[in-house]
Each structure stands twice: as structure tokens, then as C-alpha cells.
Queue: 2 jobs
Job 1
Amino acid sequence: MNTHTFYKYQGAGNDFIIFDNRNGGFERNNVDLVRRLCDRRFGIGADGLMLLQNVDGYDFEMIYFNADGREGSMCGNGGRCIVAFAQDLGIVGAETDFLAADGVHHAKVHTMVGWISLKMGDVTAIERDGDAYILNTGSPHYVKQVVGLDAYPVVESGRDIRYNDTFRKEGVNVNFVEAEGNGYYVRTYERGVEDETLACGTGATAVALAMARLNGIEGFGETPIRVAGGKLTIRFNRTADRFTEVFLEGPAEFVFKGEITW
Ligand SMILES: N[C@@H](CCC[C@H](N)C(=O)O)C(=O)O
């Protein structure tokens, strides 16, 4: 048994356990351990867990696991939180380039407002499923417009879509969206958590791009998104079905640190 220091961060209520794994001590394939640490009753509790690791050519590497213990694809809010963690550790300054599951990301920290701007990958394909949209913003997303989102059965309907014949094997994150003011209100069922989370960064990004296509927005766009845990902003440049200069912006905050033994 050894004692390990962990850090807890949250971005718009999407919460993560982070370990500084620059010494390589955290066993990456231990699915049971990650699941136990993320468990809200038997562990620390979180939507996901991340390892900050050394990698050649970049400031650090982000390794992301969903709460079910499986290593995942890109997590947008996790990306913003691990940048805040890297700055708190003194590894990076106001800007950084780091490696994640979907490639390199550039991020800027706006310290005065506790706001982190994270550059996402380009998106070049958006598919349709009836009136819903399917796209990959680093993780796969399904975007469906609904009426009366506050009372909408997000977990039940999200689970039905995530486990239908099309998505059962690989899974999909399901975002329900309703127009609100000059932006959108979004609630997301996340694969790998298999529940609704308070925010999903790649999901908010997917919603902004899908709604830009629906509304025929070309060129630069800026979309405010309200989620249960706070506010996010997505900026992008659209040329036909190609989205470039996609930025996910929002808060990322240290919550607490502690020690755990296993
Ligand atoms: N919460 C994340 C998304 C995490 C990945 C997702 N659960 C998946 O497995 O696709 C975000 O902020 O993007």
C-alpha cells in the first residue's frame, strides 16, 4: 500500500480527479482503480480522472478516463481543468501546447477571470439522423433539439439513444438543446459516466457547431451555452461544412487536494 496525492478540479460542474503522473507511478490500465476512485460513495467521486504526464515536444500529455474506468477520447472541460492544474504546478504560464487523445491543443489562461480558452480540433463532417445531428468534436456527440428542456427526461432518452443498435458498441454522448436568448441551454447524457453530467465541453462545442449549420451561419461565430453547472462560450469559423479555429471557453477551478492509499 502506498499513499498518493490527488487533486480535484471542476469546469462548469464537470468534475475531475487529477494525478501528477510525471514519475509514471499511476498504473494506466487499472480500470477497477479508476472506477473506484471516481465512485461518489466508495471513492473520491468524479465524472472522470486524468493523468498529467511528461511527453516529448509538448508541455505535458493529458490522459483521460471516464468514471467507468475506461480510457476515453477527448474531454473538453477536462482539458481546461488540466491546463489550470499544470499552471498551478508551475509547469506552464499563460499559454500552453499539450497533447491529448485527439492530438495537440493550445490553451490560454485568463487568470483575472478564471477563464480558460481551449483550442479544439477542426470539424469537417456533420451527419444527420432525422432532425438530429451527429459529429465528433474530439468525442462523438448526438445533438437533438427539444422543447421544455428543464423537465425533459435526459437520462432515460439519452440512454435509449446511446444504447440503440447504431451506438451500442462504441457509445455516443447525447446532448439535448433548447434555444435561449442569443444562445442555447444544453443538458448532456455522457457515455462512460452513463448519466447526466452538469456540463460537457465537447458536447457544448458539438451543439454550437450543429446549430450554426442549422441556422446557416457562415464565417466567425460566437455561441453562449448555459449548462446546469455554469456557462461556456464556443467560438468558431465556418466555411461550408468545415469548422476551424474552434475554441471552448469557460471556468476551470481547483476544488481540493487530498491523499488516498491503495
Ligand atoms: N465531459 C467531457 C466529455 C468526456 C468524454 C465523454 N464522456 C466520452 O466518452 O465521449 C467533455 O467535457 O468534453
Job 2
Amino acid sequence: MKPKVIIYKKVESTILEYVKEACDVFYFEHLDADNMASFYEALKDAKGLFGTGLKVDAALLEKAPNLKIVSNVSVGYDNLDVPALTHRGVMATNTPDVLNETVADTMIGLMLATARRIPELDHMVKAGKWTAHMTPAQFGVDVHHKTLGIIGMGRIGAAIAKRAHFGFGMNILYHNRSRNVEVENTYHATYCSLDELCQEADFICLMVPLSPQTTKLIGEREFRLMKKTAIFVNGSRGTTVDEEALVLALQEGEILAAGLDVFVQEPVDPQHPLLSMPNVVTLPHIGSATLETRQAMARFAAENFVTGIQGNRPPALVNPEVI
Ligand SMILES: NC(=O)C1=CN([C@@H]2O[C@H](COP(=O)(O)OP(=O)(O)OC[C@H]3O[C@@H](n4cnc5c(N)ncnc54)[C@H](OP(=O)(O)O)[C@@H]3O)[C@@H](O)[C@H]2O)C=CC1
Ligand SMILES: O=CC(=O)O
């Protein structure tokens, strides 16, 4: 008999068929109030859980006594209580690397759009308000040859640094808990403390995973350290920033502008003060969202999933202690 598993996200038919060859699949294209009861019923038998973003903690694990693997279709796995999964002997997997270049493109796009005020000027042109030559009131600021500070110089951070160094001639600072000698050698990146980075960078790009240590890593103190001309770009998770402090920093001119792909609450409340600021460029958490990359992520997650279900070590296992 095939093991019973749950897919709780819409996937392409090729992925569904691939998983179905090895598993008996309960398929939920999405989870909502109408199907939660069926989902919890399916959890009782499920050996595997495949999808994006569901909070999997000790309380959910109580409802899933047979679970062996949770496969996240994302590189971030802050939705998973990894210690609780490990304690129960459940494998957790994610999708590193296949999205690095795409997310880096998005982050560079956010930097350019914010610095050169692209969405604001696009609205102006389409609203028929381009009636005279542009004056400094519409000018942006340069990106090329400025200093970029990357907080979280990991896989995606390095892909951003590559673009910034080779494409834009930027000077690169970075901050991690440990040094990344490869980026220092390849992209001439300089390691520094968080405070030094905040003080010296023209563009500050946040790319850390969400963890207890990175929750509200950037708050009032850090915004005050930044240059008044600094542009802050966040592609990590909304909660790595104190969002109220960000609003204040923008309102009080502590920084010039912000580009945001992530928010504390997603989807963001349409009344959120950040959305009415012309110097804030927003995206709907879409860093990895190209057709090609989302397909690659789903394939990788499915490979992790089936490999783990079959009792082998998945290629991207987050908690190898369970093996
Ligand atoms: N917006 C979007 O659509 C996307 C967002 N993401 C987000 O980006 C994150 C990063 O992904 P990825 O680059 O693959 O991850 P990596 O693990 O490769 O890189 C994360 C980096 O953050 C550093 N870091 C971790 N904790 C801290 C800390 N407390 N203080 C300072 N630096 C820290 C790590 O270095 P060290 O351990 O030395 O501190 C590491 O270099 C994901 O976890 C996810 O949240 C990812 C994909 C798409
Ligand atoms: O936010 C996306 C991810 O892959 O993590």
C-alpha cells in the first residue's frame, strides 16, 4: 500500500503525478476555513506534508501522529518548528539555491525602482501629468558606484553582491554572524558590524532568515544610524524589521526610501501607512516568483518529499539529526 501524504498547495500536474507514483495523495489546492476539517482528518494518516507556509508546530504535530516528512516549497522555513519536528523524528526539507538568481534579480529591481522612483513616475506618466520637462523634484539617486550593505550574505546575498559588484560597480559591505571569505575574494566585499554597515551604506539590503535572533533585527536604533539618504530594501521576512520603526524612520526623514517585498502581515493591510508613502516601493512577496523558478522549486521540493517518504535522505534536509 502506498503511504498517505498531503499536498496543501496548487501544483502542476507533472509534480502531482510524480508524487502520486509513490504516494496516495490527499490534494488540497489551498487551505481555508471550508476545508480545514478535512485537512485535519487527513493529517491523522499522513506520512508527509508538502506545501508552503503552513505553521507546523508541536500543536499541529499532535494531530499528525504518523508524519515522517514536511517538505517546504521555499528556502525559508521559519514556518516550521524545527526542534519540535526533530524531537518527533520528522524530517524537514526546503529548496535552497534554485531560487538564488531570481530573488537577487528581484532585489536589484527593487533597489533600482526605489532609487529611480520608477513606479511613482510611471503613475505620473499614465495619469497624463507629464506636461513639462522634469525638474529635480522628480529626480532619483544613482545606484551605480554607491555602497551596498548586505545583511545576510548567504546564498541569495552573494547573488545580489555579484550583480552589484560586476554590474553596477558598487562597493559592498556585509554583515553575518560569521565571515564569508568567498564573497570577500570574489566581489571585494568587506565584512563589518551591523552598526558600521548601517552607518556607511547607501543601500541596505536585508536577506537574513527569520529566527528569534533576527526578529526585529532592524529597528529604531538601526534606522537612526543610517544615512538620511539611505535606501532600505527588505527581501527576507517582514518580521525581521520593526515595521512601526520603519514607518517612523520614513516619516521623520531618518532614511530616504524603502523597497519592500515582505511585510509583517501578508497580504499587507491595504490601509497600512507604508502603502500611502510615495517613497516606498512594494511587492507582494514575489522574490522567487518567475514561472521557471517556481517550477524548479516545486520539482526540488517533490524530489525531497518522495526521497524522504521512501526512507532515504532527501537532498535538502534541514534537520539531519533525524536520520
Ligand atoms: N522575498 C522572497 O521571496 C524570498 C525570501 N527569502 C528569504 O531569504 C532568506 C535567506 O535565504 P538564503 O540566502 O538561501 O539563506 P542562507 O542561509 O544562505 O543565508 C542567510 C545568511 O544570513 C546570515 N544570518 C543568519 N542569522 C543571522 C543573524 N542573526 N545575524 C546576521 N546574519 C545572520 C547567515 O550567516 P551566518 O550564519 O554567518 O550569520 C547567512 O549568511 C530565507 O531564509 C528567506 O527568509 C528567500 C527566498 C525568496
Ligand atoms: O520567501 C520565499 C522563500 O523561498 O523562502
